Amino acid sequence: MSSSSYPKDKKNPKFGHLPLSTSGPEECALTGSALLRSPYHNKGSAFPSNERKDFKLYGLLPPNVQTLEAQVERAYRQYCSRTDALAKNTFMTSMKEQNEVLYYKLIQEHLKEMFGIIYTPTEGDAIQNFSKVFRRPEGCFLNIFDQDRIEDNLAQWGDPEDIDYIVVTDGEENHQLLNDDLYLGLRRPRVRGKEYDEFVDKFVQSVRKLYPGAYLHFEDFGLTNARRILDKYRPEVACFNDDVQGTGVITLAAIMAGLHVSGLKLTDMRLVVFGSGTAGIGIADQVRDAIAAESGKSKEDAAKQIWCVDKPGLLLKSQGEDLTIGQGPFARDDKEWQGKDHNDLFTVIKEVKPHVLIGTSTKPKAFTEEVVREMSKHVERPIIFPLSNPTRLHEADPKDINEWSEGKALIATGSPFPPVEYNGKKYEVGPELIISAAECNNSTAFPGIGLGAVLCRSRLLSDKMLVAAVKAIAAQSPALKDPDKGLVPDVIDVREISVHVAKAVIKQAIEEDLATEKEIPENDEDLEEWIREQMWEPRYRPYVRVDKEKASKHGKGELGVGSVRKEAKGPKPE
């Protein structure tokens, strides 16, 4: 939803009584400098005269009362004065630490331009430089050598009803950071095995005890941990791994849109995944589950429509212990390939004749002219997604894919690219699908999934709920109206997309008896209004002063806002 369509003031909303309602005034017990130091409450120069008086702000602010729009314009000029991407990222981080409403409003107004700064690829650089640009802590830092404090550390963040969504990462990065004199993590080799698993389990059990209604989002866990941790806790708690599931959801949505354009059914599709790590297998999982759901096949039979290729070549059952837990279900029977070459992508493409080719390998230029032309021989509209990030690691340039396929390919990329021109037409590619095998910026998928799970207080996040999210995203595909447009919606529409995704997720949760929230509206129109009323918006709400003794933790500025970060003995070894 564009900012211009946000209501300036919600008058008597139908669902204004809800605990997460975003309408009406907010209680605030902070005054003076303490109020200006609270990032969530601070309005800066936009505090109106009555609030300056009531909250003892006279003398602490310039006299001119400004609008949020004027603040955005000033902040944007400051942003533009920064000379490089990392400096812009650092500026935005600093702004978030001062005024959250202004931070999000600025992003909302300039999302297309700023997306690559606050997310991939620049955010990856910022994470690498975390110890160098660090100014103030944000989030909860848990130490593997201080596990007895986990519950107490988490409890500082609020009461059970205060925490809805927790993002957690184990801080796994590359070994060279240990040699940085400014490194803020534990300067030790990374913990593996039983001690690490106990650490994760204590964290999850503490979350379940303290915040039983919270949704748990795993982010950037390493290849050896992401899948097995997700598999362990999915039956116990509503949880989601963006690298595994988020990548699969947004890619499947793009595939489904591409199949619609090409006139092919999902149940008839052949898929080759090149790069069988966390992201690649996450995609394969999601596609397999969708095929099984639509066709009535078992997951084992559905997996037969998918061929996964990794560094040694095609995954085969004979590779045994060399296969990861996630790769195992997609390993092919060796008898199928007896006497056939299966060690490189081209020979697999030639034999399989896939309709869809996905790249999550981080192997630059792997989708060669030979590969693309061979695929195009057998498929009328080849669907080719080079998804690896950053740009220098993408499997092929969309311009080359378009040329080699003679304009037939349907393309989505892992990084923004300029529109491809062919025969006088421009074809949109990258900006409509932002996916990274390493960082998985699946920004049109995970917000709506999480929103739906939180609002209906789902006990678990089921496969069918994810499929519902896929279908909701695919239904918003610009390519459904114009085949020359992007296969999934543009990131600038993420708020509106998230409403549709959340609605689909909630309805599926209700159908599976997983939703625990009471009085969820039954008809679509009311359900959509119910969702929108609980979506936070970057706008200044009026404050009502309350005594500290009567104020909530939120009103006293005592709630933290940030992700939970777990540090497991420093970065991963190379």
TrEMBL record:
Residues 547-557, 564-574 have a biased composition (Basic and acidic residues). A divalent metal cation binds at residues 219-220, 243. Divalent metal cations. Prefers magnesium or manganese. Residues 96-234 form the Malic enzyme N-terminal domain. (S)-malate binds at residues 389, 441. Residues 1-24, 547-574 are annotated as: Disordered. Residues 244-510 form the Malic enzyme NAD-binding domain. Belongs to the malic enzymes family. This is Malic enzyme. It comes from Letharia lupina. The lineage of its organism: Eukaryota, Fungi, Dikarya, Ascomycota, Pezizomycotina.
